[in-house]
Specification:
Helix content is about 45%, strand content about 10%. It is α/β, with parallel strands linked by helices and about 500 residues long.
């Protein structure tokens, strides 16, 4: 990557530092006696991450016949769910076990190639000699209107026609659920959020279903966006997201998505719950949290102290912490963590200390090997503390937003799919190209002609997954540069009935 002429200077600098770090790790690995499984790779301390297991596992199975025998005897029946998104090397490793250990080992793959939405997935599993392949056309989730749409989407792929659809019992009689499936073509302007809200209001009124406006979990509404950044903008944590996502620190980037990044843990597990408890006047919860985390309340520190004065100090500090996280606050996360450390509200991870201002253990971490996380951590600490609330809402699944990749296997009463190529800025998928609004590039046409996986194939499969989540109502918003052109193209495309294709005027 460094040698490529188009690689930017700052990228070369980061990659050079990565190489030096990896070389140091290779030396340290010689002293590691055993490896354990963790959320991320830390080779020098004997920790393997998920991606490491996906590489090491198939290699060991392929090169260690005894391991194949042990696996077959320990697990005589192995079923792989979502096999279309399973790593191809792992698929081949399991098939090798079945082919070489003899009888007594049963291997089965369950999956739908139409739902392959990850680039690394195996897709369709090619049956080996003597295998049985079972096709299941029945769909028990989707109402009739949605089933019609997903069958039209699928007709361009494997042609499987799904039957039956969702059934409800009405007056002791089983009846098909009709449901609704609509598409809205709207202008890709600066009023996207307002237009999305307008569609939800329209659906609530037209369907006589006020839950379309709900932001609570019992509303069972899911707004499906392509990338997390789109939710971050709408929920008010765009800077926090960009800090940990865009600065080349893979561990922090991965930990951002599930809340496990070390810089986020004290916020999610202690500080934000502490503030919420204090705001609610839940004194017992406040004291319980402080006893677990505040070093001032340890037995050693309490001995010989003026307990009343100490509690007044802690009470004042908690009040100040609440102010720092208030909606009117201008405090940054650097302010928060400096305050927490100075006032001993918590014992911070040692990795924080070298990022805090001078005078707050400025020498901590001196001489440590650079980790490549410095730009991301500094950008994170510069974020407004108030952005943590939107992030917490999103990560705790308390908002209606979810990514289109993250909901596979789930189902919701009301599904609103947001298609916006411009805002998503994700070249692997293009809804404009899929609907015929955006012309195909020369490379796209080459892939289509060669029959290789193309942007149309990837987008079609992802769109199918999104639409097939709906158990009652489906709505799709397509943000486009020209609404009149898009309307004509979408109607011609024929995925949605013409009477179910809509647009609006100005957002209100």
């Amino acid at each position: 990557h460094i040698a490529k002429s188009r690689t930017r200077a700052n990228t070369r600098e980061r990659l050079t530092a990565d190489i030096a770090r990896y070389q140091a790790q290779r030396t340290a690995i010689a002293q590691v006696n055993r490896f354990s499984y963790g959320t991320g790779s830390d080779y020098r301390n004997g920790v393997l991450g998920h991606s490491d297991v996906l590489k090491a596992g198939p290699w060991l199975i392929a090169n260690r016949p005894l391991l194949r025998t042990l696996v077959a005897r320990r697990f005589p029946v192995v079923f792989v769910d979502e096999s279309q998104d399973t790593d191809p090397n792992f698929i081949e490793a399991l098939k090798l076990i079945a082919a070489t250990v003899g009888g007594g080992f049963c291997l089965g793959f369950f999956g739908d190639p139409m739902q392959k939405i990850y680039a690394t997935g195996a897709g369709a599993i090619v049956p080996a000699a003597g295998w049985n392949q079972v096709t299941k056309p029945e769909n028990f989730r989707c109402p009739s209107a949605v089933l019609n749409v997903i069958n039209r989407i699928r007709a361009e792929n494997d042609g499987l026609v799904q039957t039956r659809g969702r059934v409800a019992i009405v007056d002791d009689v089983a009846a098909l659920v009709e449901g609704t499936a609509r598409l809205f073509a709207l202008p890709a302007d600066t009023h996207r959020s307002e237009r999305l809200a307008q569609v939800r209001r329209w659906l609530a009124e037209t369907n006589a279903d006020p839950l379309w406006n709900s932001t609570e979990q019992d509303g069972d509404v899911r707004v499906l966006i392509l990338v997390h950044r789109m939710a971050a903008r709408r929920l008010g944590f765009a800077d926090l997201f960009a800090a940990l996502n865009d600065n080349g620190a893979d561990g922090l980037k991965d930990g951002l998505i599930d809340g496990t990044a070390w810089v986020l843990r004290p916020l999610l597990t202690y500080l934000l719950p502490l503030v919420l408890a204090a705001r609610a006047g839940a004194d017992f919860e406040v004291i319980s949290a402080l006893r677990r985390n505040c070093p001032l309340l340890s037995k050693d520190r309490l001995s010989g102290q003026d307990a009343a004065a100490l509690l007044d100090r802690i009470r004042s500090n908690v009040s100040r912490l609440c102010e720092m996280f208030s909606s009117e606050s201008t405090s940054t996360l650097l302010d928060v963590f400096s305050f927490v450390h100075n006032e001993e509200i918590a014992v911070l991870d040692d990795r924080f200390l070298r990022f805090l201002p001078s005078g707050v253990d400025a020498g901590a971490g001196a001489g440590e090997e650079p980790t490549g996380e410095e730009p991301a951590v500094n950008a994170f600490l510069a974020c407004a503390a108030t952005q943590c609330w939107g992030y917490r809402t999103y990560i705790d699944d308390e908002s209606p937003y979810a990514t289109q990749h993250g909901i596979k296997g789930a189902e919701f009463e009301r599904v609103l799919v947001v298609l916006d190529d411009e805002e998503a800025d994700y070249s692997l998928f293009s809804y404009g190209k899929y609907f015929g609004i955006t012309p195909l590039s020369d490379k796209d046409q080459e892939h289509e002609a060669a029959g290789t996986d193309s942007v149309l194939d990837r987008t079609r499969r992802l769109f199918y997954v999104c639409c097939s989540r709906a158990v009652k109502d489906l709505a799709v918003i397509l943000f486009v540069p020209s609404v009149p052109d898009a309307l004509a193209t979408v109607i011609t495309r024929g995925l949605f009935d013409p009477e179910n294709v809509h647009t609006f005027g100005e957002a209100n």
